[in-house]
Write a structure and sequence with these properties.
alpha/beta; 2 domains
Length: about 290
Amino acid sequence: MRSAGGARWRQFLTPTWLLGHALMVTVVISFSNFGAWQLRRHQERVARNAQIEQRLAAPAVSLETALREAESARASVAGAADAVTAPASAGIDPLEYTRVRVSGSFEPAHEVLKRPVSRSGAPGYHVVTPLVLDDGSAVLVERGWVPQSHGSVPVVEAPPPAGRVTLQALAFPSQSPPSGILASLAPRDPPEGSLEQVAYVDVVRLGQQVPYPLQPLRLVAEAAPDQRLASAPGYGAALPLPPEPPEVSMGPHLGYAIQWYAFVAITVIGYGALLRRRAREATATPGLGP
């Protein structure tokens, strides 16, 4: 009896079956690694969202304070013995999503349009206007959305407030084209000349066409409470429509991880069922092989 059972299972030690075993193990290891990678991405997203929510809940600070604290945080990360555990590991720049309060005068003569920015499915732009500060420098402010029909600057249909203003906005680092394997597919702004439309709010690049030094960040204006209802075009609201509030979501990574681990379970269970079926067939029909 024991020898018959042993012979039944020894059929799975042939070269053909050994190749199948190796393939199954490779598939299980690969799918498990994909699942673990998606879990790590999910954990990074959880940490990132926690940082964003903490910054969005904090009171507004002055521009000088935001820049000083961001520089101090970057220096701490650069000097940390274990940079993997530093806050920047979640992909959040120390300046990103910091709420700042700033005063100055808008200069629409030097504004540009950031493209493409869709709003409720409608194509358009964000109007980016320099705000000149008391010290003579300026900061680029994304004031809001205009439809694609308003494609020249200054956008007379969406003028900024005249005179000195005080606004509250979310700070973000200067943008630049991505690098890496897919960089060649990303849009590019001309390196020289005066730009009216840009793919990136690049402080260094746009600093070439304004008559004052630019602060090393960009601001995205926040909507006042009575403006938040005007979130989609077609409501007769004054232009520009206020920027949409930042979306803090978990993303699909946890669902993807569950799918990959489900594939692992299906592979193992299915392969085990195949082995048992072939073993029963070999017992019922002596001499049956792969």
